[in-house]
Hints:
This protein is an alpha/beta fold and 209 residues long. 33% of the residues lie in helices and 15% in strands. The chain folds into 2 domains: 2-46 and 101-207, Ribosomal protein L4/L1 (Ribosomal Protein L4, Chain: A), CATH 3.40.1370.10; 51-91, no CATH class.
Amino acid sequence: MKVAVLDIKGKDTGRKVDLSKEVFAIEPNNHAIYLDVKQYLANQRQGTHKSKERAEITGSTRKIKKQKGTGTARAGSIKSGIFRGGGRMFGPRPRNYGFKLNKNVKRLARRSALTMKANDKAIMVMEDFNFDAPKTKNFTAILKALDLENKKSLFVLGGTNNNVYLSSRNLKGSEVVTNSELSTYKIMNANQIVFVESAIERIESNLSK
């Protein structure tokens, strides 16, 4: 699959990049995508939720009424969960929601996601670019040139570039990541993915293993 390389003004440079069939043209595996996205979202959860159980409630442990003869259920403590102000029964406890996922499954998921985007013609390739200083106006100009102002876009760089990252950081609909930060969730969440030329080779090298 060949994709035209665009310049910073959104114009065709006359060059084309040949995208690897092993990464951008496989048979998509929906279940692998589901598992990888599920793991990503699970890892975002803090898991710090906690409610007090009866052992943690401040209150008397005196038996509040006699065992028999009241005509009601027996009760041993005011801290019981059936009383107002008592502890919560089976309440949430701090936990880790993360789970293990095989590396090969994660690679398959990313290849499947990239294939789906390629099939939808939602992949663009730009020549490498840089800014002299972090300015949101410069990045907005690129979005306008690529007609991505009103779309969720994901820019994938070949390496760390602070000026480009800082220029895009406060734009709600756009995100900049390096090739090593690319995840299935971010691929699927974007309407358009823009790769710089230097990122293509590294992604294909990582995902073709």
